[in-house]
Amino acid sequence: MDDRLRPLGFAMSQLPVLRALADGSALPQKELVRLARVEQATMAEMLARMERGGVVERQPNPDDGRGTLVSLTRQSRKRLPRAKEVLVEADEAALDGFSDAERALLRELLQRLVRNLEGRREP
User: In whole angstroms, what is the distance from residue 86 CA to residue 4 CA?
Assistant: First the structure.
């Protein structure tokens, strides 16, 4: 997936941030940490790389004089629809030959796996 996203300036590890900011919002780093479920230091490093790469930009947070708000650059917002298409194409290629029932079963099993890893149980 990284090979497919790299020409657009994105990486798989950035998806939680890209998804959180896709609607044009600007969020504090602390909120991105929560949404991405990563450590603060991990997010700080990722955002620094994304900023150097021109993917995100930061501006002062008017509600927190010490903090900043992170948003996608205009260029990233323009490239995001193509990135979504690339991910859908890759998903289709990966599931080629699977029946609708097999796709549904795989999705259900993967969701259960994630819930197990996160320590949440659902019937």
Answer: 7
What's the domain count of the chain? Answer: 1
Going by pLDDT thresholds of 50, 70 and 90, the confidence category of residue 122 is low
- The pLDDT assigned to 91 comes to 94
The SS3 assignment for 37 reads coil
In a domain, 79, yes or no: yes
Q: What is the pTM of this model?
A: 0.83
Take residue 33 and report the two structure tokens written for it. 């940490």
Count CA atoms within 13 Å of residue 106 on its CB side.
9
**Looking at residue 66, which CATH number applies to its domain?**
1.10.10.10
Q: Phi first, then psi: what are they for 110, rounded to 5°?
A: -65, -40
